[in-house]
Amino acid sequence: MKHLFSFLLAGCISILVQPGYAQSSEEILLPMYHAGTDAGAVKATAQFWKTFGESKNEKWFPMPNGFLAEFVENNVEVRVVYNKKGGWVYTIRQYTEKELPVEIRKLVKQTYYDETIGLVKEVIQDGYTVYVIHIENEARWKTIRVRDGEMEVVQDFKK
């Protein structure tokens, strides 16, 4: 009986100390409550809280080269990417015309006054903010990019 107990105890210990399962690049990303406990994850979490606050109910996703945090605030979907060392890489905010800054909306509407502004993606990276704006009318839809007050058509499709 003593040997059986020792055998079972050894088996349980070996199960507990085995290395964790490594995620392959072909697997989907599953949300985590927090980024993790390694140094990069802790730094990313601290950076996130410093920038956005601690009560965002964000979801964290492991990525091959870092971490992704997602949350929604005031009808704006926010995605923030950090590298493996926890450094901020970029932020993408997604929203509708209603949340578009007034000066950007005015710039777009001066040229495209008959079009409806749909989805907007605001990309912040390396000190720049770029707006990718989807507009449409009865005949066509376009994707335009606005950066530093300059506007250019990226895509133009007939319906």
Strand order of the largest sheet: 1-2-3-4-5-6-7-8
Q: β content, as a range?
A: 35-45%
Radius of gyration: 23 Å
Count of β-strands: 8
Approximate shape: elongated
Number of helices: 3
Number of domains: 2
Q: The biggest beta sheet, please?
A: 8 strands, antiparallel
In helices, the fraction of residues equals 25-40%
Pick out its properties.
159 residues, alpha+beta, Nuclear Transport Factor 2, Chain: A, 2 domains, 3 helices, 25% helix, disordered N terminus
Task: Please characterize this protein's 3D structure.
25% of the residues lie in helices and 41% in strands. By secondary structure, the chain is α+β, with helices and mostly antiparallel strands. It has two domains: 28-93; 96-159, Nuclear Transport Factor 2, Chain: A (Roll), CATH 3.10.450.40. Strands 1-2-3-4-5-6-7-8 form an eight-stranded antiparallel beta sheet, covered by helices on one side. It starts with a helix and ends with a strand.
